[in-house]
Design brief:
Blueprint lengths: L23 H13 L47 H10 L3
Length: 96
């Protein structure tokens, strides 16, 4: 129930409809029609359950040919941990 323009971020749950509500599509149609008629109502068809959002924050067990590469002036040529990139970039930018 936050004004979309005053909202600090994006919630992936907003892409989903609440699976616990019965007859959700007719409810949405009724609410949109009421809004078109100038009535005010709460559009409470979005779930608050974050476990409904599925996905991945990265791929696991990729082949070496499919991994990202880092090109720069660094002595380590083997596989780098993602957390090591931070220090390499800072050293590249702020050389002593």
């Amino acid at each position: 129930m936050v004004d979309i323009h005053k909202k600090p971020g994006y919630d992936p749950c907003e892409m989903l409809l609440d699976p616990k509500q019965k007859l959700i599509i007719p409810k949405i149609i009724f609410k949109v029609l009421a809004k078109k008629l100038g009535l005010r109502m709460v559009m409470n068809v979005i779930p608050l359950d974050a476990t409904l959002v599925k996905g991945s924050h990265g791929a696991i067990n990729l082949d070496d040919d499919d991994k990202a590469i880092f090109i720069g002036n660094h002595s380590e040529t083997n596989n780098l941990e993602p957390t090591a990139i931070h220090d390499l970039m800072l050293n590249q930018i702020f050389k002593d």
